[in-house]
Design brief:
- The structure holds two protein chains of two kinds.
- Chain A has eleven helices and two strands; from the N terminus they run H-H-E-E-H-H-H-H-H-H-H-H-H.
- Chain A is mostly helical.
- By secondary structure, chain B is α/β, with parallel strands linked by helices.
- Chain B has one domain: P-loop containing nucleotide triphosphate hydrolases (Rossmann fold).
- Chain B is globular, with a radius of gyration of 18 Å.
- The chains are: A mainly alpha, B alpha/beta.
- Chain A binds chain B through residues 92, 160, 162-173, 176, 180-181, 185, 275-278, and chain B through 53, 55, 58, 60-61, 83-84, 86-87, 90-91, 93, 95, 97, 99-102, 105, 109-110, 113-114, 144-146, 148, 159, 162-163, 166.
Amino acid sequence: MNRHQSQRAAYGCLWAAASITIVILAIIIMYVLLQGLPYLSLNFLFGRPEAQGREGGIMPAILGTLALGALSLIIAVPLGVGAAVFLTEYTRPSALTTMMRFGTDSLAGVPSIIFGLFGFIFFVTRLNLSWSLLAGSLTLALMVLPTLIRTAEEAIRAVPVSYREVSYGLGASRWQMVRTVVLPNALPGIVTGIILSFGRAVGETAAVIFTAGTALNIPTSVFSPTRTMAVHFYILAVEGISLPMAYATGAVLIVTILIINVAANLFISRGIARTVRR
Amino acid sequence: MSDIKIQIDHFSYTYGDEPPVLRNITLNVRRNSILTIFGPARGGKTTLLRSLNRLTDIDEPGKRQGRILLDGQDIYAPSVDVPSLRRRIGMVFALPVALPMSIFDNIAYGPRLQGVRSPSRLSDLVQFALEAAALWDEVRDRLDSSALALSGGQQQRLSIARVLALEPEVILLDEPTAALDPISTAKIEEALITLKSEYTIVIAPHNVQQAGRVADDAAFFLMGECVEAGPASQLFTVPRDRRTEDYITGRFG
């Protein structure tokens, strides 16, 4: 095989790898949407479930999903970004930071069911939060922390050292430097991490069933038990309640994640445009 | 008031187990003058400049000996507030750096850190600094556009203006024209000569010619040692040390 042929072969293989990935993804999404969309209606979106979800809508699950996703991010984002800033800006590499990084990496590899079990034992029973939005959010927050810390760290590291030197050189304290130079320039990367985390949180089932419960009521406080769309989907499908309703729920979940992705990307590009143009 | 602005007194600096980057430097910087620190690469020029406003604090920590006095006060004394020190001794780096914000915000960055909020005071400072750095005429109509769109030479004058907006006492410049074309270089050298009536300037030029063009005093650095220091007129014409002469006449470096 000469150089030209091997070049063509390599191009072909790489092209195939990329195409197959995208096609499989597209097939999954299309399948769920095609199965689910015919059952979508205003009543399904805004109605309450009846007969265990065989009839009616999924309003409580939509609200539960958004509340759980939002609350877990409210808990996890300050912790994750704070830890990332501390590790990158306030410490020099040492045994301690190596240990902290090893810890977060190990945490990332822990199966979600283990987080669920821990959340159940610690938040639900030990802290007596029972099955609730709060217990679920705390558990999910722990689960997404490694992703958040890692992506925020990468984003912070990507901010040029020269910006930091200029800022210090102009008399900035460390915190002023972080606030005016590091965080604004790392924001797009941090937001990407937040989107990934949100996706993981709202798509999670195992950890949520253990900690937030499966109640089909609209949550009224952080102490209410709730059911997310992913859990609803799981229960409808596994317990054979209604496959069409399960796919319809899946379709809504996919569209919700899509909307949040697009909104976050818009927010990022606006943010960048503002800092660059201003 | 003493004629000496900065007194470097038997100052040495070492990173880890390596040989010292600076060895026993004793050097005075006269008020309202331009001191040029020149010599071949790895001579310790950058480390000395970074020691003068304690930017070495943010590097890998090194070991320090001796003293540096600003107006007679030890800048490494425990009571010194480092951010305030850096406002008094501003630094311009070799590579132009525009922060990713507007031209106005770049210049107003330092004053805002100090808590200056008044829009009229800020725009006065911005105009003053840009005029002093010889950039005002080129950007006065687009202060709100991104500083990233400026050319390299403009970005370096922006860096100088950013330091001037702090109303510092001393300006340090580390090879400020290393990345610039001859015309931009000339503009910056002109600006520097105008500035010395108000400020004390220490510059590590990027070649001997520049050292000769702008300096009042000069110090020749070789391998972390200050070989020779004195008035530029004397040092560049009748150097006392053989090594200085060899370097100036281009025999090495």
